[in-house]
Amino acid sequence: MNYRRGWICVFLFTLTLINYTDRMALSVSAKPIAAEFGLSSVEMGYLLSSFLWAYVLCLIPVGLLVDRLGSKTVNAAGIALWSVATVCTGFAPSYLVMLLTRMVMGMSESTNWPASNRVIREWFPASELGLVNGIFGALRVATRRHLLGAVLDEVRARGGGRAALFNVG
Predict the structure, then answer these.
(1) How far is residue 140's CA from residue 167's CA, in Å, rounded to a whole number?
(2) Helix 112-123 / helix 129-142 crossing angle, nearest 10 deg
(3) Which residue from 142, 148, 147, 131 is spatially nearest to 9, judged by alpha carbons?
(4) 127-154: per-residue pLDDT in tens?
(5) What is the DSSP-derived secondary structure letter of residue 111?
(6) Within 10 A of 157 (CB to CB), how many other CB atoms are there?
(7) Model confidence over 30-67: pLDDT tens digits?
(8) Core vs surface per residue 81-114: b (16+ CB within 10 A) or e
(9) Do 120 and 129 meet the contact criterion of CB atoms below 8 Å apart?
(10) What's 67's DSSP letter?
(11) Residue 69 is inside which H or E element, if any?
């Protein structure tokens, strides 16, 4: 892998790391937020899953946008929108507003996979696709609840229930 493609791989890794950090922040802060809003376990389940509803529904339309507008434009818009939505989740004054901000996060974070896979296809030769997809995919396993969960839990413990949301946005 040459130097330039190596940096692209680092960018994709970092982009996905931020993406996963943002989406995990609410899970780590779930107990204090449930207590603050007086949420039942069912309501908390809806809140936690609302991200995924929007994420899944938007993957195909976002893929079409990537094909039409390009990965740079779609990734930039996604990053901007999911960052704002994450911070707004931290400021949400009610359950409904928080539910809506999580759905906006899901919509905007759905840009990561289609756009990043297009970058991989465009920038890496066939002889390196296995390595790059392995690095990109390993991030999913390495970060889920293990590394990021511990870091976000420490942020929440030091700064309160919504601290993880503010810090990752």
Answers:
(1) 21
(2) 150
(3) 131
(4) 988 888 887 777 666 665 555 555 655 5
(5) T
(6) 12
(7) 888 899 899 999 999 999 899 999 999 999 999 999 99
(8) bbbebbbbbbebeebeebbbbbbbbbbbbbbbbb
(9) yes
(10) H
(11) helix 41-69
